Every structure is written in C-alpha cells, then in structure tokens.
Amino acid sequence: MSKRNKIRVALSSFLVLAIVVTCAAVYQSGSKSTPNEKELVKNEENPSDEAMTTEEKPEEESQDANTTQVEGTREVPEEADTQAEAVQEPAEEQNESADASAAENTQPEADTQDASAEVDNQAAAMAPDVNFTESSLMEWPVSGQVVIDYDMEHTVYFPTLNEYKYSPAIAISSEVDTPVASVANGQVVSVEESVETGTTVTVDLGNGYQAIYGQLKDVAFQPEQYVEAGATLGYVNEPTKYYTKEGANLYFELKKDGSPLDPIQYLP
To answer: Residues 138-163: pLDDT tens digits?
Structure first.
C-alpha cells in the first residue's frame, strides 16, 4: 500500500473514532439532561404550588395578624380591669380610713361620756346625805342678834320701811364679810339677784325643806352643787335699801313645800 493510502486510512479511522466518541458524549449528555428536564418540569409545576402556598401563607399570616389584633383587644379590658381595681383599692382605702376616722371620732366621745359618768358617780358618792326632817336641827348661819323676827300671824315693824307687815324670815345682825355657813346638808337650787334681799341662794335640804340666804356676796357654789352643813356659802354683804336702818344683816328663811316656817324652831 502506498504511503498516501495509509494516511487516508488513518484519517478515516480517526474520523470514525471521533464520531463514535462524539456520539457517546451526546448520548451521555442526553441521558443526563433527562433528569434536568424532569426537574425543570417539577420546577415548572412547583411555582403554582409555591404560588398556592404563598397565597395560603398570607391568609395564615392575616389570620395570625387578626388573632394578634384580637388578642390585643383582649388585653385592653385586662388593663381596664387593672385600672378599675386600682381605682377600687384607693376607694376601699378611703372607706377604711373614713371608718378608722369615724371610729377614732367616736372613741373620744365615748371616753368623754365615760369620764362624765365617772364624775357623776364620784359626785353622787361624795354627795352628803340630804334628808332634813321635822325633827332635824340646823346650825346657825352666822352669829348675831335677830333684829327682825319671824311672824306670819302678827305684823312686825320694819324700821327702814317704817311699817308693820308679816315677816316670813328672820334678819340676823352681822358684820360685812362675815362667812355664812350652810345650816344643813343640801343641794343648791338657785343663785339669784333680788331687789329686796340682794344676792340670794336657795338650798334644797330634802323632803320639801328649803333654806334661803339673802344679802350675800362672793357665793362659792353654783346650782346643782351639793353643800355640807357648816360649809361657807358666801359672805355677808352691805344691806339693801330695804334694810339700811337695820344695818348689815343676813336674811334667812326656811320653807316646807313652799310655805314659810319659823327658823328659830329648828335652831339650837
């Protein structure tokens, strides 16, 4: 064979080999592309699914958002309840403080009433026995001469008035500022001013008896106070215009159920 023919055969063999190799490569590439096509098909199918999924997700997200909003709206009443409770708590505290204040205000009143009751009980315990009777004797209120006698049956002469009239009391001569003693245990009924007898003290002796002291000053007792026999009621004052000629004296009267009695009958 000639050299030229050998070259042709070699080229032909090379071409055949190249074609075979190319065909093999094409075949292999075709077999590999099939899965890619399948994947492409799947990918082409997936977008719709993904789109569906994407469309469903917003709904879920919107539902979640709505749920969150609803949950948010639910939280508001809880805050309102908390605020209401906060408002109620101060109100309850105010009520408690008001009750405490009322209790505190009531307690001093109760204490005052108790103190007053104790004072009354002590006063009652310390009060002298007020029980003057027909057989009782009095103490002299002052020492002195009787310048006007008691007489409700015959008239008596009054020097200052220059007239005769009935005398329901006695007038005992005494110096100004002489202490006037209580003739018996009793309770002061009144302390009054009289034109005729000046400052006049009426004392309840019990059992309807009353002792009346006139022309006094510096009286040491008030109405409703108790006085023991011999205690100083006050002091002899200057005489009123009804007794100027008689001089300073104590006007003293004794009554039983409002009717005058002769004091001398009950004095020692």
So the answer is: 999 999 999 999 999 999 999 999 99
